Amino acid sequence: MSAGSGRLRLQPAKVRIALIGILVVLAWVAMGYRLVQIQVFAAPSLAEEGLSQRLVSRDLAPQRGKIFDRNGDLLAMTVEAQSLFAVPNQVEEPLWLAQQIGGLLEADSDLIFERLTSDRDFVYLKRQVDGVLAEEILGMGIRGVYAHPEPTRIYPAREVASHVIGFVNIDGVGQEGLELVYDQELTGIPGKAEFERGLDGTPILQGISDIVPAVPGVDLNTTIDIPLQYQAQQACMDAVKRTGADNCWVVVLEVETGEILAMTGSPPFDPVSRQTLDPQCDRLEDPSECRMFSNFIVRGMYEPGSTQKLITFAAALEESEVNIGTTISAVADVLELRDGACRSAEDDLYGCYRDFTEHETRDMTVAEIFTRSSNVGTIMIADRLGQNRLVEYIEKFGLGRKTGVDYTVESAGLLNFEAGCETCWASAAIGYSVAASPLQMAAAYAAIGNDGIWITPHIVASKTDVDGATEVAGIETRNVVSSGTALLMRALLASVVERGTGGNAAVAGYRVGGKTGTANKLGSDGRYTDDTRASFVGMAPISNPKIVVAVVVDSPHFDYRTGGAAAAPVFAAVMEQALHRLGVTPDGEQR
Amino acid sequence: MTVRPAPRTAENDGFRVLRGRRIRKPTIAPWMIMALIAVVAFLGLGFARTSLDGSAFDLAELDRAVAEQTALNRQLNLEIARLENPARISPLAEELGLVIPVRTNQILVDLDSAAPVVAERDGDGTNQ
């Protein structure tokens, strides 16, 4: 300040310093204001926004359980594959891409082209492709083609176990067989993971983390023996070739446990491609007519014919109406139970019964009637028993109701005893007017092998989850006849193979017992035709039965129309392998 | 120890004990130590936090490696099962001239008897 000026004059430097000071203060105030605004007032919403960017939620898919055979060999397993997809508006040359990808994926190029030229944002090129192939395609660097991992179900035994295991759909949901029956348990329980992640997806350890792990599906340990299953399938396919039959079905049961060792038939199908291996199906105009997935053993019904006589004779012996040595007088080869039934050229459906071979009327013992499979003699024995007791035993042996096997859509069979049907009991005594599944017949024979105790047939022996293996519950047992009656029936069954109609069922080194069955099939007009279902059900070794095998051959050529010609050889081939597999001690040659 | 002044004598008469200036040893202020500890703790915490974040990447890498090995293990199990499929082995065995055994020997050991009984059985495979 200069004296005498009278006015306050500031030096320029001080002014500048003051201004800078003011600016600095203002800047600090502004930053402080902003800081308070962000850290205090906007803090909750900003923190929430940040968290929403970091926090992700993922569904954790459980691993579908595996399926094993009785030896621990893998039958079904889920592995990770790659699903190839495209974003159509990014693809530059759809026609070229469709041809390239179609060739590599063995897929329909036209269909891929159609998808690539659609107005959709996302199209699948092919789902669940092998990882190596997917990498090869992605390695081509085609714009707009991507892949994401997806689990796929693999069946290493392919068609060998397809009739037992079934299959899943493209989304891994059980559609058939064990895959369907145990779908919920095999699937497991999905989990959920919520966690904070960095930009590259790496989880932040100190961040929020809430993980409910997925519970993997249980593993199924089945009773199936895959080598035996294969042998049974081969025997059936050979029989179809040899006899010109439409189909052949085999089921093998372990007598003491009710475990199903093999259950297969011809034609088999591939569970992955779901294509039948039956050449006949290719010739059909409508592929749906091909019953490639059906399991006749569990779902089918057929009139068992003479194999049913086991129940009739067991009932008569149990009720002491006859014994093995009882002589039945005047057994003819034709029996007319309804007047006029046998007069027409084509015998009436019910009321006229004939033996398979003509013979003179003569006295026959119970054993001879069974061994020679005389229909007339059997009906005469059933007459002593009466309809009510016959039906009671048929039901006791499990016909007309589901066995409870762990398989889908089981057939209960059919007992046709219409009111007013005076001859249905006679038909039922010889295996007509009754429809049963091959599994029901096998279980009935197993009851005789098991000293009269019937056991629920089953495929799954145990389940293994995170807590270990647990036995399958719900195996029912019930007494159907006494052990004495069962012993007598086994002697009768052995005589069928030794002296009767079942000679082709003999197995070297073992005594085998069984019964042939030849049932005419009903035509579309409701009358019986010459077409037959040939069957054989039996057990070995007869001294202490371990295994029951039931064979049904559908519509064999006329030369092989009987159970002894078409089914008994299949039985022998399968039984021999089964006895080998189980290491059963020989009980001597067939007498 | 208490120091008593020497008795006054002719020689030391006129001397007196002067109170000297107290010299204080240089000391670090406690607040500086506290500050130092705070800085070290802060740095340590930062380092630990960074290490932990770094280990998250290691963990993610390990998880990926475990998943890869698990997938590989499953693929190998699957391959074993495929190779064991009897439908694959049987035709190959036939090509090599192998057949299902038609003769089986079983040794039946009778525990009551000293000598084992050998039971032989023959079969043609199908008995058709």
Describe this structure in words.
The complex is a heterodimer of chains A (591) and B (128). In chain A, 34% of the residues lie in helices and 23% in strands. With 591 residues, chain A is α+β, with helices and mostly antiparallel strands. Chain A is elongated, with a radius of gyration of 37 Å. Chain B has 128 residues and is mainly alpha-helical. Chain B is 51% helix and 9% strand. Chain B has helices spanning 30-84, 86-95, and strands spanning 103-108, 117-122. In chain B, a hairpin with an 8-residue loop joins strand 1 and strand 2 (117-122). Mean pLDDT of chain B is 78; it is low at 121-128. At the A-B interface, strand 3, helix 9 and helix 19 of A face helix 1, helix 2, strand 1 and strand 2 of B.
Q: What is the gyration radius of chain B calculated from CA atoms? A: 49 Å
Distance between the termini of chain A: 145 Å
Gyration radius over CA of chain A? 37 Å
Structural class of chain B: mainly alpha
**Share of residues in helices of chain B:** 40-55%
In brief:
The complex is a heterodimer of chains A (591) and B (128). With 591 residues, chain A is of the alpha+beta class. Chain A has 19 helices and 25 strands.
